[in-house]
From TrEMBL:
GO biological process: response to bacterium
Protein topology in the membrane: Multi-pass membrane protein
Record-linked PROSITE patterns: RETICULON
The organism of origin for this protein: Dendrobium chrysotoxum
Record-given protein name: Reticulon-like protein
Taxonomic classification: Eukaryota, Viridiplantae, Streptophyta, Embryophyta, Tracheophyta
Keyword terms: Endoplasmic reticulum, Membrane, Transmembrane, Transmembrane helix
Entry annotated with the keyword Membrane: yes
Length: 182
């Protein structure tokens, strides 16, 4: 230790040296991401991770008025689903049917009211998009069938036991729901 001012072990560091290192680490982490301290040395802010823009502002309560409206609307929708006893699919299909009826009535009354309709976008799936979706789906199904084949031939014991465990858990969950919810 005599002559070497820089050779310090971790236990021998003075508090000033530790503070200097902490300040250097802090400044280097803020220089990389810019804009303040980032927990766990993240490169992006939470706002950027969520996607930025208006939706991130609403999720992070930067537009608190809109955030409150979103929560109230979601709560009312949930209460309506709970009280009506209908499924989400039934209610959403009813809402879409009502919207189609309103659009039809508006289109037919536009001639009488001398107003012009806003054009609807053309809803067309390209052949390339359908082929890509089919190829992706085919690859996933083939992968599932390959795993099922390995399980059936006794080659993959871990997946076999995971499938058995999941089956038993789902069965117990169903029995509990049947017993206590009926």
């Amino acid at each position: 230790m005599e002559g070497s001012g820089q050779d310090h072990s971790v236990g021998d560091l003075s508090s000033d040296t530790r503070k200097d290192r902490a300040a250097d680490q802090y400044s280097s982490s803020t220089m990389v991401g810019g804009g303040g301290y980032r927990l766990f040395d993240r490169q992006l802010s939470i706002h950027q991770v969520i996607g930025g823009g208006k939706v991130a502002d609403i999720i992070l309560w930067k537009c608190w008025g809109i955030s409150i409206v979103v929560i109230v609307v979601a709560t009312v929708a949930w209460l309506m689903l709970e009280r009506s006893g209908l499924s989400f699919l039934t209610i959403s299909s009813d809402v879409l049917l009502i919207l189609i009826i309103l659009r039809f009535i508006w289109a037919n009354s536009a001639g009488i009211l001398n107003t012009s309709l806003r054009p609807l976008p053309e809803l067309v799936l390209s052949e390339e998009m359908v082929n890509n979706a089919a190829a992706s789906f085919r690859a996933k199904v083939n992968n599932i069938l390959l795993v099922a084949h390995d399980i059936a031939h006794g080659k993959d014991f871990r997946s076999f036991f995971q499938a058995c465990d999941n089956h038993c858990l789902f069965e117990m969950h169903g029995l509990i729901m049947l017993t206590y919810c009926a």
